[in-house]
Amino acid sequence: MGRWEPDARGRLERAALELYLERGFERTSVAEIAERAGLTERTFFRHYADKREVLFGGSSALQELLVRTVARAPEPASPMEAVMAAVLAAAAVMQERQEHSRRRQAVIAANTELQERELIKLASLGAAIADALRRRGVDEASASLAAEAGIAVFKIAFRSWTEQAEQTEQAADQADQADQAERAERAEKAGQTGQTGQVEQGGQKDFTSFVEESFAGLKAVTAGT
């Protein structure tokens, strides 16, 4: 019987993301990921097929959520209403992992192979949504169009959401640097340190807000306004 390894999957995910950001995806090996996580390579391959899949391990759960939400949409709901409900449900779940999503996206953006992998995963999500719509009695063309539109909205909203997180972090770093300089100047003049300043965090929008705005934009475009 194998040794119990608590949260092995989560530890591997965190270790991989740290190493990808530190060294780059190409220069990180499975052995290094396992070592950073305090686990073995054998354990790694029990959870992931390869080092790329560490970044896409949540795809199956996301697909299940999207399909389940489409299936449970009220019977009178239009295809786009069902898709919107599904994308909003996914956004609500992902909101809790904004920092992880931002860091993960930075790794993917720096590697062509990973970008291609992400497009394949998104296409699979779109196909699953279309299948769920067809099971609701939606015709082939309408199901495909609604699903692809939903994935397009998801991509646009996700990019805006992660860019917001990046901008917030940069602003916080700049404010912290300015605060340190100000405190050092006050200490030099008064012979004592000043109080730590606070970075304003107000005005942040969550992922669902970006999704709603993107769907509204899609509706405006299709309506010709």
Question: In summary, what is this structure?
Answer:
It comes from Sphaerisporangium corydalis. The chain has 225 residues and is mainly α.
Describe this structure in words.
The chain is mainly α and 225 residues long. The protein folds into two domains: 1-54, Arc Repressor Mutant, subunit A, CATH 1.10.10.60; 58-166 and 205-225, Orthogonal Bundle (Tetracycline Repressor, domain 2). It has helices at 8-23, 30-37, 41-47, 59-71, 79-94, 98-109, 112-135, 140-190, 207-223. Helix 4 (59-71) runs antiparallel to helix 5, helix 5 (79-94) runs antiparallel to helix 9 (207-223) and helix 6 (98-109) crosses helix 8. The protein starts with 7 loop residues before the first helix and ends with a helix.
Number of strands: 0
Report low-confidence residues grouped into runs of 5 or more. Answer: 192-201
Number of helices: 9
* Biggest β-sheet strands, sense, barrel: none
Helical content class:
over 70%
What is the fourth-level CATH superfamily of the largest domain?
Tetracycline Repressor, domain 2
Count of discrete structural domains: 2
The coarse overall form would be globular
Into which percentage range does the β-strand content fall?
A: under 5%
**What name does CATH use for the topology of the largest domain?**
Tetracycline Repressor, domain 2
**Judging by the overall fold, what is the CATH architecture of the largest domain?**
Orthogonal Bundle
Estimate the mean pLDDT confidence. 86
Oligomer: single chain
CATH class of the largest domain: Mainly Alpha
N-to-C CA distance: 64 Å
Query: What is the rounded Rg?
Result: 22 Å
Order of helices and strands: HHHHHHHHH
Report the structural category.
Answer: mainly alpha
